[in-house]
Amino acid sequence: MISAPYLEVAAIVLGVVLLLVESFSVQLNKRVIAYAALLGLAAIFLSTFFVAPTPAMPHAPLWNFYASDALSLFFKRIALATTALVIIMMLDYAPVVCANIAGATPQAGLGEFFSLPLFTCAGLMWMSSAIDFVMIFVSLELVTISFYVLVSFTRRNPLTLEAGVKYLVLSALSTGFLVYGITWIFGVTGETNLYRIAEAFTRPELESTGALLGAVLIIISLGFKIAAVPFHIWVPDVYQGAPTPVTAFLSVGSKAAGFVVLVRVLQPLLMLPNVRALLVALAVLTLLYGNLAALPQSNLKRLLAYSSIAHSGYLLIAVVALSGRALAFYLVAYLLMTLLSFAVLVLVERHGGCELENFSGLSRRSPFLAFAMLIAMASLAGVPFTAGFLGKFLVFDAAVAAHQYTLVAIGIITVAAGFYYYFKVVRAMYWETSSSGEMIFISPLTRMAIIAMIFGIFFFGVYPQPLFNALR
Amino acid sequence: MLLLIVFLPIIASAALLLGAPARATALGASAITLVLSVLAFFDYDHAQAGFAYVRSFPISTDLRLNFAVGADGLSLTMILLSSVVLLAAVWFTGKVDRYENAFYACLLLIAAGAIGAFASLDLLFFYAFHELALIPTFLLIGIWGSGNRRAAAWKVTIYLALGSFVLLIGLIMLYRALPAATRTFDLRAIQAAASAGQIAPAMQSPIYLWLLAGFGTLISLVPFHTWAPEAYASAPAPAAMLHAGVLKKFGLYGLLRIALPMLPDAVRQWSNLLLVLLLANIIYIGLATTAQRRLDWMLGYSSVMHMGYIFLGIVSVNVLGATGAALLMFAHGISIALLFGITGELRKRVPTLELDALGGLARTMPIASFAFGLGAFAAIGLPGFANFAAEIMVFFGAFRNGFDFQHFHFFQWATLLALWGVVISAVYLLRAYRRIFWGTSAEPAAVPDISFGLRLPVTLLVASSLFFGFFPQTLIERVAPTFRTHLSK
């Protein structure tokens, strides 16, 4: 039995060691670093199952800002799995990185490319345990700063540079909102710990206007992280410009962490008046905008960017309906299907590009990849027997239980819109004829990862109970 | 046995995708499925009533969700229909120009979705199995369709996805309407709870309206019908056979299985609305069918129109009408499959399906002409075919709903009007039959008749329609107990 904080420590140590190895052994094939990172992440993932349920010293100061409950462990596993899958994608993406970095050696920059995600991962894991605003802020910064580097990694590509600048500016802005919101809450309650803030909110002498202002500022800043409309403006450009594995990481890891922080923060904040109405409005806007703007997209990366906004809408329904189960399950489903589509995208991108035309006739060039993409798209759209469907089912179930019929009605319409733009990809792969006859090489590791994700989508699509158990 | 019937087509389609020999695997799997369904149908002990062949596997204790299959007379009838039409559709599939394996796999998956839905005892899987057929339909129409296939494929996919999710909300509301302690997805348990009056009357109406909108879209109830004619006109013949013959019956089955037993008050309360809609289906769509100039569009519209009769049986809320509706679902599935199958063969041989451009085909295609004639007569409801027995029951069932031997009420007037639909369908079907197969030939070029092998599926379809036309009792005695528990005679 180990104590939960050691998991993050292990991730950080792993990252530092790999960075040191990278900088001191010049001759080393940089791919070894990626494999080592994968092994390390797998070990940490396994050890999450041996975390002691109750802390050894419950009154130590650490536990004032760090929780090791089932929810945090669940999200730590999400972070670890995402990072591992992203590193596998990065291995496939390595040639593009090399081509876009000016370096003395052929593999310049790859070592950092493979080891930086570990720091992001540690940040994500800390975020899932953070129950204190200071802790939330610090771990959020760790995630964001490592993303600054990753987003603009292929710096010879002007699109990437644009993405990097946009991400930097808007993230900094959202951090500003967060800090300002925290100060207001602290000013009103004199606390930064979420539970003690909740207690303070029950006091009759509470200055509720100030608290509400703080709450709104914090929700705005988290809205940036989870890509909720109208704080989504950075998403399409950054997603399109960033290196594809980083885009995948942003859309899954960063979003999952954003939602777990949102859930934790809302426990006190929902005690304030009107906060729920604000969230309903956010959800409505996000659902409508994300799905409708995705309709005309012809670049798959951009399409997935809007789809990621759209899925934030469904996740927000779960948040509004206060269903942790629906939220957690939907995030797992979202992780599997989004990473699966990005994994295919990385491979196809190397043989053409990210436009929908590059997917034309994929069923001929690579039936395996086309099938994987078919499953990913079916799951994103919400076809039964996939995890995506069960996620939508749980979300709508929670919404009906909470009597949020507006959200239900809008959700149905947007689901139908989703069928259109996801099936557009299927159409390209199966109806159209191929423009190039080039076969696509798939490395054994990637093939394994893709098969695992397909299996996961079907497994959790028909047998969700293990996930429900993990949440207890 | 039921598990095998449900999973055999799925396993076969997986094998096809992995490269098994296309036609042999598909034919073998659907033949075995048919044999098993026939065995299950005749083996079912109707004196016992209730669900037989029940198997249940727990999925989620949190949601009280099980994967449970089981069948009573109603589901067995529908499963039998599915497997008959599946075998015929697979047989009618001729040469496929590209992705032959995928074509057969899609056909099997559509049938598997229908069979799975009919066999499910659990709301969520009942729903999920049906939607399993969505992607195969999209691919079948999009890749192998004809005419304006792309637009048709989009339309049917979006429409059905929207309808399905509306339906899903209705099902969730039904699930949530149960008290928390007994909340479950198990059909039998929900039915028991409904009989015990645990579903609040105030909740029945909204649930029913959601279900009606959802199921109605899938069944092509006016005004949610516009996807159907276009999709069936563009789909390859085997896909149209399966979709119009089997998959569309899912919605009707759902109304019979869920709405009638669980929400009887709401069904009665909203029966006038449904009567108006179904009359629109029969009269308005009937006239629209008469106006069609192309055979495939005409059949597409006619399959929309005939849904009206089945609705009439359902809305009459008595055993006679509901049983008639079930029999009519079977009969209509068979006859429309036969008509679409022959149309598909015609499409391969003649340059156009415009009714005005065709003529005199009986001379060179005697067998096809005979088969089409039988299908048309069955669809019109000629005595001897199952359609006749079914329509009689539906009309009698609807007519006696609230009839007091003094005044005609809405139901009686509606029945009278609906009867005119029989005349309308006779008009367009007989006219089409005459135009295509009789009269003078527009083009003298010899058109070869359907191949010898195709006589088998034609015989299969005609024989099953005739069998239940002459011996409707075999079906009625199995189906009626399903309704006897909760409906008046």
Query: In terms of quaternary structure, what is this?
Result: heterodimer
Instruction: Bin the helical content of chain B.
Output: over 70%
Number of strands of chain A: 0
Order of helices and strands of chain A: HHHHHHHHHHHHHHHHHHH
Residue share in β-strands of chain A:
under 5%
Cα distance, first to last residue of chain A?
Answer: 18 Å
**Greatest interface and its participating residue counts:** A-B, 33 and 34 residues
* Average predicted local confidence, pLDDT of chain A: 91
The percent range for strand residues of chain B is: under 5%
Q: What's the Cα radius of gyration of chain B?
A: 21 Å
Neighbour order of strands in the largest sheet of chain B:
1-2
Question: What are the SSEs and their pairings?
Answer:
The complex is a heterodimer of chains A (472) and B (489).
Chain A: H1 5-24, H2 31-47, H3 70-99, H4 110-129, H5 133-151, H6 158-189, H7 194-202, H8 208-226, H9 234-241, H10 244-269, H11 275-294, H12 300-320, H13 324-350, H14 362-365, H15 367-381, H16 387-401, H17 405-430, H18 444-462, H19 465-470
Helix pairs in contact in A: 1-2, 1-4, 2-3, 2-4, 3-4, 3-10, 3-13, 4-5, 4-10, 5-6, 5-10, 6-8, 6-9, 7-10, 8-10, 9-10, 9-12, 10-12, 10-13, 11-12, 11-17, 12-13, 12-16, 12-17, 13-15, 13-16, 13-18, 15-17, 15-18, 16-18
Chain B: H1 2-17, H2 22-43, E1 52-60, E2 65-71, H3 73-92, H4 100-119, H5 123-132, H6 134-144, H7 149-177, H8 187-195, H9 201-219, H10 227-234, H11 237-247, H12 249-262, H13 264-269, H14 271-290, H15 295-315, H16 319-349, H17 366-380, H18 386-399, H19 410-437, H20 455-470, H21 472-484
Antiparallel strand pairs in B: 1-2
Helix pairs in contact in B: 1-2, 1-4, 2-3, 2-4, 3-4, 3-11, 3-16, 3-20, 3-21, 4-5, 4-6, 4-11, 5-7, 6-7, 7-9, 7-10, 9-12, 10-15, 11-16, 12-16, 14-15, 14-19, 15-16, 15-18, 15-19, 16-17, 16-18, 16-20, 16-21, 17-19, 17-20, 18-20, 20-21
